[in-house]
TrEMBL record:
<dbReference type="GO" id="GO:0008757">
    <property type="term" value="F:S-adenosylmethionine-dependent methyltransferase activity"/>
</dbReference>
<dbReference type="InterPro" id="IPR029063">
    <property type="entry name" value="SAM-dependent_MTases_sf"/>
</dbReference>
<dbReference type="GO" id="GO:0032259">
    <property type="term" value="P:methylation"/>
</dbReference>
<dbReference type="InterPro" id="IPR013216">
    <property type="entry name" value="Methyltransf_11"/>
</dbReference>
<keyword id="KW-0489">Methyltransferase</keyword>
<dbReference type="Pfam" id="PF08241">
    <property type="entry name" value="Methyltransf_11"/>
</dbReference>
<feature type="domain" description="Methyltransferase type 11">
    <location>
        <begin position="39"/>
        <end position="127"/>
    </location>
</feature>
<protein>
    <submittedName>
        <fullName>SAM-dependent methyltransferase</fullName>
    </submittedName>
</protein>
<keyword id="KW-0808">Transferase</keyword>
Length: 232
């Protein structure tokens, strides 16, 4: 993701339905976990790092781009500019590694998974979210600098290959997948969909994603995949 796209995302992050829904996902997933030390790999502008800190975690961000790291730092978020393939974090030193929509940007995701396992303490947890399904590949992925979208088995094999134990793996943003697929059909030119949304539509889209908490949709195809795992 280039500097211009990062700056655009930063302007949208606080109110845009997708970012808000992702923050809610993080909050809901970790709410019953005892807070400890955490690292948010590929933290971007730090919105999800803030969620962890608000919940009592000693959380820092690791961000590859100088633009993202500078924006996060300007918001008072502890952030280190670094590479997910060689994390600037000591062995077995953190209780949680979180990475939301970052692995798909990295060519060597095997190295990222291995680094995730390396820095975790035994019993430490992993929370990773990635875009799902190459059937949804479009110019949006190109514009955001994605290398891939993940299939369920592909993500599971990657996490297990790093020596981690999967506790749950589910689809997210299922209800809106048909809309996303229709919008992205036959779109090959780079074109990001991260743009301002009418407030009424924004609220409706956020509500649609929120409904998934009470509907049995987690095993159906979605726009994203989420995996929770731990280090044995």
């Amino acid at each position: 993701m280039d500097a211009e796209e990062i700056a655009r995302s930063a302007a949208l992050e606080r109110k845009h339905w997708w970012y808000a829904a992702r923050r809610a996902l993080v909050r809901r997933t970790v709410r019953d976990w005892p807070a400890g030390r955490a690292v948010d790999v590929g933290c971007g502008m730090g919105g999800n790092t803030v969620v962890l800190r608000e919940m009592g975690w000693q959380a820092i961000g690791v961000e590859y781009t100088s633009t993202g790291a500078d924006i996060a730092a300007s918001r008072g978020i502890p952030v280190v500019q670094g590479d997910g393939r060689a994390l600037p974090v000591a062995d077995a030193s953190v209780d949680l590694v979180m990475s939301t929509d970052a692995w798909e940007h990295i060519d060597d995701d095997v190295a990222v998974a291995a680094e995730t396992a390396r820095v975790l303490r035994p019993g430490g947890r992993v929370l990773v979210a990635v875009p799902a399904g190459m059937a949804l590949w479009s110019g949006h992925d190109v514009a955001l600098g994605h290398v891939r979208r993940y299939e369920r088995d592909q993500l599971a094999d990657l996490v297990r290959g790093a020596g981690l134990v999967i506790d749950d793996l589910w689809s997210w943003n299922v209800l809106l997948r048909p809309v996303v697929r229709a919008r992205r059909r036959n779109k090959d030119a780079p074109e990001s969909e991260m743009e301002a949304v009418n407030p009424v539509l924004n609220a409706g889209l956020r509500a649609a994603v929120g409904m998934e908490r009470v509907l049995p949709l987690k095993r159906l195809p979605g726009v994203s995949l989420v995996v929770v795992a731990h280090k044995p």
